[in-house]
Design goal:
Shape: elongated
Bound molecules: adenosine-5'-triphosphate, manganese (II) ion
Strand order of the largest sheet: 6-10-11-16-15-14-13-12
CATH superfamily of the largest domain: Bira Bifunctional Protein, Domain 2
Largest sheet: 8 strands, mixed
Distance between the termini: 38 Å
Strand content: 25-35%
Length: 431
Amino acid sequence: METVTIQNLSAYNKQDVLLKGWVYNIRSIGKIWFVILRDGTGLVQGVVLKGEATDKTFAMEQDLNREDAVIITGMVRMDPRSVGGYELAIREIQVVSHVSEEYPISPKEHGTDFLMTNRHLWLRSKRQHAIMRVRHQTVKAIRDFFDSQGFTLIDSPIFTGNAVEGTTTLFALDYFERSAYLTQSGQLYQEAGAAAFGKTYCFGPAFRAEKSKTRRHLTEFWMVEPEMAYCNLDENMDWAEKLVCFIVNRILETSEVELDILERDMSFLERIIAPFPRITYDEAVILLVDQGTDFKYGTDFGAAEESLISEQFNQPVMIHRWPAEIKAFYMKRDDINEELALGVDMIAPEGYGEIVGGGQREDDLEILMNRIRHHDLPMEPFKWYLDLRKYGSVPHAGFGLGLERTVAWLCGTKHIRETIPFPRTMTRLEP
Ligand code: ATP
Ligand code: MN
């Protein structure tokens, strides 16, 4: 008999199959009982009926526990009322391993802290499973997008000697006889990559020792960072827009089942369509003041301001041309106003906050050296970075898109800790 997976059951209607998985739930209505089976690809209801099942299997009802590992044989039957549209008429259940203790995660309400402590088990739950599958599809969508657009994957290192975004949020560690940092961003290396390959991206973990405990910050998160040679700020925004549209469309195509489990209103995603509104920082500030806030010009937007701005549009909003003082040293200044940096943030709709940060990079050697001095950064570790301005410097730009914040928005999950398998925050290092 063929071993099949739950997600492929529709191809086996009226056939006998073998499923390998775990007991998700059991319920009984007397002469007939049901076992919900999970196999990692989905859930299916198995029906155990006297006569259809072997006598031994029919008598198993009291002995089966949640999370028992089981191999089940039975016949696939179309059933429009069932989740997934199919059910399994069970013939035989073989127990591979039996759970003798009560499973810690019961259907009753648990606090998030308890669930996070049991994250290794919580991942088996329907909602968490759905979120991880959307994450998987999002990663694949991102790779497919860049791979189909002529980008080359150039992995940036995790150990670095450079403090890119300032030292306050860096994780320092002993590195033989010197100190090193965990990367906060792979960008500087992508700039080297773009000069060698034209268009590159890296996609990996980034680390930030953020002492903030917001629902949008992890200490370890994943970021995709494309970088393009011969690219200005406007073209950079085009790329960010195209990427986000591609991801949203892919998720709508592939993840209907998961979004349904998550009770995500898909119309919020269906209406995402380019071009996204593009407003300057100055315009965003006017908008905030018009809304009655007492926002101070020259500071960064917090979660409240981002939500207020995004509420004005049903689309992701791109905010560009920021006060240079609050942006990184490598950002190129606006020709028209030297006080402004050619940076861009994309704010997701529905209050999910900033998902993209990027901009055009300074490509002039002298100016860049002055900036490094102005920011009190040591010149030595940037020697190689400055070389990129000595040898064939061109206008170039790029951005970083945070995977977890993007998945949180796609799934409609309020806290990003549920969008990564094993979240790392200020207070959580286990499991
Ligand atoms: P924020 O101001 O929200 O802390 P940032 O401006 O420091 O973010 P960037 O340096 O622009 O972030 O990083 C690019 C993207 O990486 C962000 O738009 C966001 O999606 C994601 N990101 C940044 N920091 C974190 C974090 N601590 N946890 C999860 N994702 C993050
Ligand atoms: Mn940012």
